[in-house]
Amino acid sequence: MSVALVLGVARAVNILLENGYISDTILNYFSGVVTGMSPMSFILVMLVVYIILGFFINSSSGLAVLSILIMAPLGDAVGISKAAIIAAYNYGQGLISYINPTGLILASLAMVGVPFSRWLKFINPLLVATIVLNGLLLVAQVVIG
């Protein structure tokens, strides 16, 4: 039930953005910002954007509904395929799930008796390595096409 509610609210926000021409205004502004940007730096910025958005929007479906319709045309403006944008979305959403306290991580840690601070000390080196690896994979995807 909660997933359906999140998707309904996300779709309602999306309809407001489209019918109020707010998404067009956002696209117009950001297309001017990203026009001179290299595709490799753009895809890395997308990874960071999706990590940040994933922290605030815990629902992967809700985040997809809200962001893909704006990010995919921005990728077209820079010359990046939609598959690379989706990959950045998946990587960013996956990375933030390691440390997002609003997700299932706190409940899982409570079940096994591990404090969140100890989890952060353990996961930080892995998280940094995964971010670097994901960035390299995204750059390779952009270079290959």
Could you walk me through the main structural features you see in this protein, from its secondary elements to its overall organization?
- This protein has 145 residues and is mainly alpha-helical.
- The protein has seven helices and no strands.
- Helix 3 packs antiparallel against helix 4, helix 3 packs antiparallel against helix 7 and helix 5 runs antiparallel to helix 7.
- The protein is flat and about 50 Å long.
Shape: flat
Order of helices and strands: HHHHHHH
Cα separation of the termini: 39 Å
Average pLDDT reading = 85
- Structural classification: mainly alpha
Count up the helices: 7
Low-confidence stretches: none
Fraction in beta strands: under 5%
Count of DSSP strands: 0
Cα gyration radius (Å): 17 Å
Taking the sheet with the most strands, its summary is: none
Helical fraction equals over 70%
Give a nutshell description of this structure.
With 145 residues, this protein is mostly helical.
What is this structure's SSE topology?
Blueprint lengths: L1 H18 L2 H13 L4 H18 L3 H19 L3 H15 L8 H8 L3 H29 L1
Brief descriptors of the model:
single chain; 145 residues; mainly alpha; flat
